[in-house]
Amino acid sequence: MITPAPLYAEDLTVGSRMELGSWVVSREQILAFAGQWDPLDIHCDETFAATGPFGGLIASGMHTMSILQRLTATAFLTRVAVIAGRRVTGAELLKPVRPDTLLVGTRSIDAVTLRADGRAVVVTTGQLEDQAGDVVLRMTGELLVARRPEQPPGDIVS
After folding, report:
1. Which residue, 81, 78, 107, is CA-closest to 18?
2. In the chain, alpha helices (H)
3. 156: how many CB neighbours lie within 10 A of its CB?
4. Half-sphere CA count of 115, side-chain side, radius 13 A
5. b/e string for 26-55 if b means 16 or more Cβ within 10 A?
């Protein structure tokens, strides 16, 4: 298999948007994630959740963010010359995620700031929509991305 060349900061176009793929959130995934990482009754006790403010079991916000990260990692970060994540600057949980919800992810490039040290700060916004097309999560953050390496001049052939 041929691995494509990485995308460097100079290859990222402000305003561009990438499809990240999809994920179906199962009841079992919601219960397992909540049991380990966010053991609140609304996420892990179906009887309690049925009488709660959302009328049923919902995924933890951290679970929803983890799904966006998974889709981002496999469809975007593996293609970009990422050095490190810098920070999450905002996250909006706009709609509860229920069992058997299909989530579709996208990521847009909001800003690319080239630095003299061979790196760039790239601001991106990731989003998850449910099968109805409603945005359930919007999350913005900064990445440190490598700039294209300078190529040494080649041999001159006459």
Report:
1. 107
2. 27-37, 41-44, 46-50, 61-72
3. 5
4. 10
5. eeeebbebbeeebeeebbbeeeebeeeeee
Query: Helix axis angle, 27-37 relative to 61-72, nearest 10°?
Result: 110
- pLDDT score at 5: 75
> Residues near 50 by Cβ (< 8 Å), separated by ≥ 6?
56, 57
The model's pTM is: 0.90
The CA distances from residue 27 to 23, 33, 43, 63, 98, in Å, are 13, 10, 10, 12, 8
> Is 21 buried (19+), middle (13-18) or exposed (0-12) by CB count in 10 A?
middle
The pLDDT of residue 157 is above 60: no
The three-state secondary structure class of 39 is: coil
**CATH superfamily ID and name for 9-24+59-146:** Hotdog Thioesterase (3.10.129.10)
Domain ranges of the chain: 9-24+59-146
